[in-house]
Amino acid sequence: MTGAEHIQQPRKRLFILLLTVAGTLVLGLSFLLWWVPSVGLVNIHPALPVVFGAVLTLLAFAIVGGLSLLVLTLLTGRDLFMLQPLRGMVVRYLFPAIISLGKLIGIDRDMLQQSFIALNNQLVHTRHLRVPAERTLILLPHCIQTFDCAIKITGDVEKCVRCGKCDIHGLLGLAHKFGIEMAVATGGTLARKIIVEKRPKLIVAVACERDLTSGIRDAYPLPVVGILNKRPNGPCFNTHILLPEVEQALKEYVIPALAEQEKPQT
Q1: Which class in CATH covers the domain with range 130-261?
Q2: Contacts of 161 (CB under 8 A, 6+ apart)
Q3: Using one digit for the tens of pLDDT, what is the confidence trace for 163-219?
Q4: Which element (helix H / strand E) includes 113?
Q5: Which of 23, 29, 226, 262 could form a disulfide bond with 212, CB atoms 3.0-4.6 angstroms apart?
């Protein structure tokens, strides 16, 4: 097991635990929704409590079944049936609900966001994607660049003189190695604009917990592999990235441009 996997495993377990709690709450709420009205429904018609109970039972089992399938997907690492709708359910609905649940029981928001990012990455991993380099985008926050650098690379990363004072130098090397386009965004609005313009099939995004979670949700249904930046100087200031994490993601999901060129002609 690699160091990255060792770090991400507890994060995924946290989200799985909260999914289990959410499923239990759904069952309990369904019972209450059946039991309370049934006292009055029986006075309207004797069969109404049974009908109402059956509808709620089917709804509860559908939700719990979906959550169970999601947990199995995470535990087995396999692309199980209905994976894409499940990812949509997690991104659009479960994440906000889990954040609210975690807040109620006192779990740190950053931990929950890390768990969500790890879960999202696992769901992307189970799809076994191999995307051509020209349809892949590396998306970076502006804080990766040294704060006092006179050359601002937002809009054109190739302006970087590759002095080596920040991680843009190494990231550009990876982008050129694989033949992938790289962009720097100053915020969510610009990031969305870049995605619309570039129209990638896969995004490898580097950012903090907050920006990654919002970016994953904004980009859905595009698959996004989220990689957390390192912040030894505090948030949004001279941040860093472990280049091996980015390179590993590119090796796993991207068909390098050179490999495309070397394919035998048919």
Answers
A1: alpha beta
A2: 151
A3: 989 999 999 999 999 999 999 998 888 889 999 999 999 999 999 999 999 999 888
A4: helix 109-125
A5: 226
